[in-house]
Structure prediction request, 208 residues.
Amino acid sequence: MPTIVSIQVGQPTRYVHERVVDGLNRAWTTAFFKSPIAGNVHVGQLGVAGDQQADRENHGGIDKAVLAYSADHYPYWRTHLNMSDTPYGGFGENLTIAGLDETSVCIGDRWQAASIVFEVSQPRQPCWKMGRRWRIVDLPKQVIQNGKSGWYLRVRDEGELAAGAAIELISRSHPSWTIVRASRLLYHENDNVAALEELANIPELSRA
Prediction:
């Protein structure tokens, strides 16, 4: 059964890199740097207690309250990026989940962990901050190419959560719309008008 192996939160923080990373050496503010938390934490409609977003126009809110990422991707990234110590939370996620990935998660899925009910709202769309966090300019492009993006969750029923909680699928309304299919359509097949219309008509898809 899929399991939450780690929970992370972060606060907006100002950083200055000591060298040019992406053509810029200016200061930047981000909550991408997440730290693990121990014990129970409250998860509400706006996300995990103690977590905030620096860019609230593009992140957070009810439709993107919690970012999930597959723990199963970390061995690949640790080898591929030659960073064996990449920690859980390294891709900015709140929940690191073993046993699920973009091929096995569908838009509209409802999952229960402890007393909390999550609903999958959309794929994560990687932004430049991911590349800047790891000082790998094309990292967002790599994520788009390989589909290891992560996905956003709504919180339908609030509650307390701790690492180690099992996740159970309780309903699946759109089995043909996996996260990987939606991402592929948005980035690689965006001339497929019929599929785009079908995706846009899924009521659980985030409008943000």
Observations:
- The mean pLDDT is 91.
